[in-house]
Write a structure and sequence with these properties.
69 residues; three-stranded antiparallel beta sheet; globular; binds zinc ion
Amino acid sequence: MEKLLRCREFGTDCEFEACAETADDAMQIAIDHARAVHGLKEISDKDRRRAKAAIQDSFCVPMGGYNLW
Ligand SMILES: [Zn+2]
């Protein structure tokens, strides 16, 4: 089982899903994506907590790696 975090959890209208072997990695991928793609400068603690709570167990589909953006 891997960990999946949707970009939507940061309040975006985006289909991006961060998937990684650990919740911390999924969180980092999602934050990097949100910064790079959505221009989010700061992710608040509140957003981090909400995102962390929304992380799901999932099976990642490797498409040239886990990072699909
Ligand atoms: Zn996104």
